[in-house]
Structures are given as structure tokens and as C-alpha cells.
Design goal:
The complex is a heterodimer of chains A (about 270) and B (about 400). Chain A is an alpha+beta fold and about 270 residues long. Chain A is about 25% helix and about 20% strand. Classes of the chains: A alpha+beta (about 270), B alpha/beta (about 400).
Chain lengths: ~270, ~400
């Protein structure tokens, strides 16, 4: 399962695990934690079996891949390493035959973001994917998903989420074999497991820090507060961003006592 | 009985609730933190009567507070991870020396990274606690309750540490069956505190009996033999082998869930040419590898080690009689001495008439993922030795 922090992919993995257990099956939902930040790509894994699941490695060759984010749905990485004839269910506003994802896979799409905005008023797409998941894969029944959702979201919130589930159950497209068989060579690696200091998180930034060296007094407050060791110290006693390590949180700008750091919008 | 799909850390908190823990003294540290959060929620809900939740200012304090609470007669709990455990090192010794049956969850976090390995709990071998290693969320809940029964047994009266891997178990959600409170109450009676007992003189042999001869907590500076507290402590820890088996057998009878004999859990060992051993979550992954090995005609069994301290000596001496090699997997490394499980295994089998080769594997350090394919290879390598081959090295990195 691929999503971004804040879209509820981890909760969705637990809802599927709960729904499966409701149907008499054993299950396991593993979240992949790393440097957490709203909007950062993340993965979660679910196993379902007739006996208690004891194997605990991550799921490296899934049968089904779910993508909760419309932009990640464009990335080949969400469709890689699937079992032959694997199923890829995307949150995308277009029909599955428009997807460029490649491989010996079948693709289905549902516009979960629109469904979430209509039913929840926020682009939290997890429950708006789960109805589509139940319908398209048949792994769990719609009733079981609804039963599980009530355990996680009591009251009105549960009703709203169930509305999202039902809508996506109706709207999901049929499966279509991928039109491209060979994946492109250049690919973005979505695996950000582990810690920011060890990974390239430059693609997470919406804003990045720019230092006004005239104003900077070289006190190192920014360097002390940076949670990812993403500031290096230059010979002239001024800080500079480490491109690979900065996730764009803005703590440095916030802590600077002379306001010498400005967060600028990344231009694409 | 009910069920919930819950993460490993929640299973610990629910286990504490079912054990009717009176005092939890905790300090948060990843990946243990959510236990403290769940316990704090239980406290706030008021569902557990007479439950004190104490936010300590560090692990040194959380251990001391839990220790003191236990000494006043309250069933107590604490939990930590990696560096937090190292910070507790000093008072942990006191908890054991005072013979206080505290239970602590250690959510493994390595000492060289935030990711899991067993180097945290392995570094506390000399503290006089019993060390159990568990594999899945259900086992966490069940073992939390059983740990109190083991710790509070008159033959033991020692603290118990229950270790499980951070992240892959602490945060992984699985269906967990929650036993009914009244059944747990029947299994685990209320904690009956007993003062510590220590010999006044060498002729005074009543020191073995907690009830008949209450004295004080901790060894005094009396005229008694200063070695006696050590002798008693060692004896009590060794009693673990008997008591753990008894408690797990009773649990199995009452709740229908067993974990081998409590000390070890054997998987497809019957008819196997050789066995590999593993602890914690890696044992679960190893089971998948064992199934593949048998499917490929390779007769390799698995022994999951549940209790590292005391070490399942009699079990392995019996197993060694029937297999031609043992491959030991260590998820920690004491630099200069290799893996601690490997050493225990070799010392356990040293006096046996039949020499069974023991080879070592070290893997999963600093959270490196151990995959089914890794355990498959370990099985193959052990099998090669069982068939008379020479290992590439006595101990290998995975």
C-alpha cells in the first residue's frame, strides 16, 4: 500500500486486517515507519492467511498494490515487483487504460480524492479506497469493511467514512491489463523507510530554507534545532542546506533569533 | 473472550490491565512510547481500579519507582527500549537483588541505531532477571500475564523482562484474542507481597522460605555468609526452567494457546536432520523458511528460544541427541565475543557424550531486515554441516 503521511494508509491497512479477521481469516498489518512528515510517501503492508501469519519480513512481492495518492499513482514504483497478473488499484481521476504503469499487471482506478472531498470534506483518501478495494479484489466483503470502520471511527465520523466506502464501491473501474509491458528505466524510488539522515528526502520539500548571510549572526541555533542534521556549517561561519537531507519542515527559520532564514517555495 | 486487531505495544498494555497492574512507572522512548500512551489511556478511562500511572523523568527513575512500588506490595510494571534500558542498568540490579517480582517490557532497539536488535536486553544479562523473548502480538499479551505468575512464584521471586522487536512487532497490527478478566483472575491471583529474606547466620537455613522468615529487602551487613544471597539468586533463576514450563502448561490448559513448553517452541523438528534456532520475530520468519526447506526435501527444523535466561539447557541437550547439527541465529553481537546465544548453546552441549556441531550466524543487527530467504540459507548451511560438510566459518555474518 502506497500513500502519503496524512492520507490514512496505515489505518486502512489495519481496517483491511480487521475486516479479514471478521471473516475468519488471520491477518497482519505492518506499517513502514521512517522520518515521519505529513505528505511524505509511506508504505504499509498487509498479509491475509487462513492460519496465523508468523512470517514478518516486509511484503516484497505483493499480489495487490493500492495507491492512495493521485501523484504517486503516476509512479512506476507502485506497480513494481508484483506477482504475475498482480492487481494495481490506483487513486486516479482517469480510466485505467489511460495509466502508463507497466508490467504483467492489471490496473483499476477510482477517483478517491473527489469521493473523499465530497463525503468527508477533506482529501483523506483511505476509506474512499477501501470500498473500491473490496469490490475490485473481492478479498474482503463490503460489510466486513464497514464493520471494521465502525471499530476505528465511532459515531458520525464512522457514518461519513462508510458513505465514502460505499461510493467508491460503486465507482471503481473494472480491471484492465496494463498497455505497457516494459517499465521505464528511470524511476523514482518511493521507499523512504529508515531515517531522513540516511535517505534522500529532497523530493518532499514544498518550501526550502534560504539564508540571508548579511543578517545571520552565526549563532548555530538553526543547526542545533534542525531535526535531520540537514544544515552544514560553511567556512564563513554561516549555515547552508544539505539538499539530500532537508525535508522542508521550516524549524530552522522558526528558531532563528534574527530571522535570517526564509522559507521559499520550491519551483517545479 | 473478545478480539481486537492491535499492535504489539497495545497487547502489552492490555496484558497489564488484565493482570490488574497497580502501578506503572514509565518514561517514553521510541519504539516503546505507545505502551506508555495506551497505559495512560487505560488510567484515564478509569477501567482499571486502583491503578496509578506515573510519568517518570527518565528510565533510572521509572525503574526505581516501579521497584519501590513493588516493594510496598503493588503489582508493578515498567517498560523501555535500547538506550533507556542501558540507563536503567544500575537500579535493575537492585530490583533483582531485592527479589522483587517486577515485570518489564523491553521493546528492542539496538545500541548503534534506532532500529531493532537484541543488543539492549542482551547487555543486561548480569542483572539477575529472567529474560523472555516473544514473537507476535498474541504472545505478548499472554506472556505479560504469565510473566507475573512466573515472577511472583515462591521458587523464583525475581523480576522478568519480556523482550520483543521494535517496529516490526511493536507497531504491527494483528488479531489478538483477549481473554475474559474473570478467567485471568482465576489464573493469576492477586499479588501477595513477601518481604525479602536473607540469612542471619550460616546455620540459619530458613532463608529459603520467604514466609517463615521475613527479614528485610536486600542483603544486609549481618554476620551471614555474604555469598548466600548470590547462591539463592542463582538457584532462583535456575528454577525458572521448571516454573516457566509449569506456568505455560497451565495457561495452555486454561486458554487453549500454547507456546511450545514455554522455554522453547519446536517447529518441524521431528524427523529433521538438523535444527536452526531463532528468537523473537525472526522465529516467525524462520518458520516460513522451514516450510520451504521441507518442501524442497531439506529436513531442517526450527527451535524458537523463548527463554534466554534461564537457558533451556535440558531441552537442547535432549534435542542435540536427535540432530546432526545446530545452527544458532544471534540478533546481537558482543564485539570480541560474538553472539551470546551461540556461547550458551555450546556450553550447554559441551558435556554431552554425543558431539553435535554448533555453528553460529549473526544477523538482523541495527534493524537489518531478516528475510525468509536469509533463514533458508542458514538452514541450508546448517544442513551441509549435518551431512558432514565443513562450515565456511564457525560463525558467519548474515
Amino acid at each position: 500500500m502506497h500513500g502519503r503521511g496524512g492520507q490514512g494508509a496505515v489505518t486502512a491497512s489495519r481496517i483491511i486486517a480487521t475486516a479479514a479477521y471478521e471473516e475468519g481469516k488471520y491477518s497482519q498489518a505492518i506499517p513502514m515507519y521512517g522520518t515521519e512528515r505529513r505528505g511524505a510517501p509511506l508504505t504499509a503492508y498487509v498479509r491475509i492467511d487462513d492460519v496465523r501469519v508468523r512470517e514478518r519480513e516486509l511484503v516484497h512481492t505483493p499480489g495487490i498494490s493500492l495507491c492512495f495518492d493521485p501523484l504517486l499513482s503516476l509512479q512506476q514504483a507502485v506497480a513494481n515487483d508484483l506477482l504475475p497478473n498482480g492487481q494495481v488499484l490506483l487513486n486516479a481521476p482517469f480510466a485505467p487504460d489511460k495509466s502508463e504503469l507497466a508490467g504483467n499487471i492489471n490496473i483499476a482506478t477510482v477517483d478517491a480524492t473527489s469521493i473523499a472531498l465530497e463525503t468527508l470534506g477533506r482529501p483523506i483518501t483511505n476509506t474512499a479506497m477501501l470500498g473500491a478495494f473490496a469490490k475490485a479484489t473481492g478479498v474482503v466483503k463490503l460489510e466486513s469493511i464497514e464493520k471494521a470502520i465502525k471499530k476505528y471511527f465511532p459515531g458520525r465520523l464512522g457514518d461519513m467514512n462508510i458513505a465514502a466506502v460505499r461510493k467508491s464501491y460503486e465507482k471503481v473501474s473494472p480491471w484492465v491489463p496494463a498497455k505497457n509491458k516494459v517499465a521505464p528505466k528511470m524511476q523514482v524510488d518511493l521507499n523512504v523507510g529508515g531515517y531522513g539522515t540516511l535517505k534522500d528526502v529532497s523530493s518532499w520539500r514544498v518550501f526550502y530554507p534560504v539564508v540571508n548571510e548579511e543578517k545571520c549572526i552565526g549563532c548555530k541555533t538553526c543547526w542545533i534545532f534542525c531535526p535531520e542534521a540537514a544544515l552544514e556549517w560553511k567556512a564563513n561561519n554561516k549555515p547552508a542546506m544539505v539538499d539530500r537531507a532537508c525535508k522542508g519542515c521550516g524549524v530552522c527559520a522558526n528558531e532563528c533569533p534574527v530571522k535570517a532564514i526564509e522559507m521559499k517555495r520550491v519551483e517545479i | 473472550m473478545s478480539y481486537e486487531v492491535m499492535v504489539g505495544n497495545k497487547a502489552t498494555a492490555v496484558g497489564c490491565k488484565l493482570a490488574r497492574v497497580k502501578v506503572a512507572a514509565v518514561f517514553p522512548i521510541t519504539p516503546q512510547t505507545t505502551i506508555t500512551e495506551y497505559l495512560s489511556e487505560i488510567h484515564a478511562s478509569g477501567d482499571l481500579p486502583n491503578f496509578e500511572f506515573i510519568n517518570a523523568e527518565g528510565e533510572l527513575s521509572s525503574q526505581v519507582i516501579a521497584q519501590a512500588a513493588e516493594a510496598t506490595g503493588a503489582r508493578s510494571f515498567t517498560c523501555t527500549s535500547g538506550p533507556g534500558l542501558l540507563y536503567m542498568h544500575h537500579p535493575m540490579q537492585e530490583t533483582a537483588s531485592k527479589r522483587l517480582p517486577l515485570v518489564m517490557a523491553v521493546v528492542h532497539r539496538g545500541v548503534k541505531s534506532m532500529q531493532p536488535d537484541h543488543s539492549d536486553l542482551m547487555s543486561q544479562q548480569w542483572q539477575g532477571w529472567l529474560h523472555l523473548y516473544v514473537e507476535n502480538a498474541q504472545e505478548i499479551l499472554d506472556t505479560t500475564i504469565m510473566a507475573y505468575k512466573i515472577a511472583e512464584d515462591k521458587r523464583i521471586r525475581l523480576p522478568v523482562a519480556m523482550g520483543y522487536d521494535g517496529y516490526v512487532l511493536s507497531y504491527t497490527a494483528e488479531p489478538v484474542e483477549i481473554p475474559a478478566q474473570e478467567d485471568v483472575d482465576k489464573f493469576l491471583p492477586p499479588y501477595k507481597p513477601m518481604p525479602g529474606i536473607f540469612p542471619v547466620s550460616d546455620k540459619d537455613d530458613k532463608w529459603r522460605d520467604f514466609e517463615a522468615n521475613p527479614k528485610t529487602f536486600g542483603a544486609g551487613w549481618g554476620e551471614g555468609d555474604p555469598m548466600k544471597p548470590w547462591q539463592m539468586h542463582n538457584e532462583a533463576a535456575l528454577n525458572g526452567e521448571t516454573v516457566i514450563k509449569e506456568v505455560f502448561a497451565e495457561w495452555g490448559k486454561k486458554f487453549g494457546r500454547t507456546y511450545g513448553n514455554g522455554m522453547i517452541e519446536q517447529y518441524r523438528v521431528e524427523g529433521a536432520d538438523c535444527v536452526i534456532t531463532a528468537m523473537g520475530t525472526i522465529a516467525g520468519t524462520a518458520m516460513a523458511a522451514i516450510d520451504k526447506l521441507w518442501a524442497d526435501g531439506k529436513k531442517v527444523g526450527l527451535v524458537k528460544i523463548r527463554s534466554f535466561l534461564p537457558f533451556p539447557r535440558s531441552d537442547f541437550q535432549a534435542i542435540a541427541k536427535n540432530v546432526k547439527a545446530i545452527g544458532v541465529f544471534d540478533r546481537s553481537c558482543q564485539p570480541g565475543m560474538w553472539g551470546p546465544v551461540y556461547h550458551q548453546m555450546r556450553s550447554t552441549l559441551y558435556d554431552e557424550a554425543k558431539k553435535t556441531p554448533v555453528i553460529g550466524f549473526i544477523g538482523g543487527l541495527s534493524g537489518k531486515e531478516v528475510r525468509v530467504a536469509d533463514m533458508y540459507k542458514i538452514g541450508e548451511k546448517t544442513l551441509k554441516v549435518a551431512q558432514g560438510g565443513k562450515p565456511e566459518a564457525p560463525i558467519q555474518w548474515v
